[in-house]
Amino acid sequence: MFEVKNLNFRSEMVFSVRILAVGDVVSFSGREFIYSFLSKIKEKYEIDFCVVNGENSANTNGITSEIAKKIFESGADVVTLGNHAFSNKGIFQAFDSKNLIRPINYPPKVEGAGYVIFNLKGLKILVVNVLGRALMNLQLDCPFRTVNKLFWRINKMYDISVLDFHAETTSEKIAFANYFDSRINIIFGTHTHIQTADERVLPGGTGYITDLGMTGVVDSVIGVKKEIIINSFLTGKKYRFEKAVGDACLCGAIFDINPESKNINSIERIVVFKEDF
Ligand SMILES: [Fe+2]
Ligand SMILES: [Fe+2]
Question: What distance in angstroms lies between residue 93's CA and the mean position of ligand 2's atoms?
Fold first, then answer.
């Protein structure tokens, strides 16, 4: 793999940029896993650029400025969010960092930005976060039209485009990815906390996976204490969700892209446990 450190992408031949996308970080155990292992994972897999979904990283969902700061210090370049973006009031200070973005299709005038163009040693990487609407029960603008408008507006202002589609249904994610196939280089899904095994390059060249999975407790139901969720299904009653605490893993995917041709060299789905180090 080509070494990119301290290189100017504009003056050197660089054939491979390795982008790690990390699935939803869930509460205490997920955060601790990121703080302890993200930098080691980046080193092991020779990662150049890292996007982390932090929408559940605070104990009560959402994110705080302190947590965002620590995720960035652990090695994230951009942090994305989702339907829990505004679940914690600490988000408003966290927006001081332009590299923390929330879904772009919240209505106009909502705090924060829905995209950022990150300068990686001269290579401009656009990262967009958008929310799906199927089974989401939020007042959102259409993700398809909103992202279309963004791309008309910022055409040619970036070299590589990466999009986190935070959505519940596989069908909406796959439809979205095919709609934007060839126009967005990398599209990955988040939100369900369950990793899908469908990573592939779409016909137009977009690197895609339906869901990255989560970074959280393995022995849980999507990061929540399993007894609570089981009881809720058994009784039909709603219980206060308590996040599970215990051994966690990191789920994500590594997209290796040629920054000149924009071809996807490879996509590798990863699940990393603390025993791997
Ligand atoms: Fe979510
Ligand atoms: Fe989530």
Answer: 21
Give the pLDDT confidence of 71-83 residue by residue, as tens digits. 999 999 999 999 9
The full set of domains in the chain, from first to last, is 17-276 (3.60.21.10)
Ligand 1 mean position to 121 CA, how many Å?
A: 31
| Ion ligand 1 contact residues with beta carbon within 5 A | 82-83, 191
d(CA 67, CA 78): 13
C-alpha–C-alpha distance, residues 144 and 188, integer Å: 15
Amino acid letter for position 102? R
The set of catalytic residues is 84
Tens of pLDDT, residues 216-229 = 999 999 999 999 99
Please tell me the pTM assigned to this model.
Answer: 0.94
The alpha carbon of 160 and the centre of ligand 2 are apart by a number of angstroms equal to 25
CA gap 131, 268 in Å, rounded: 24
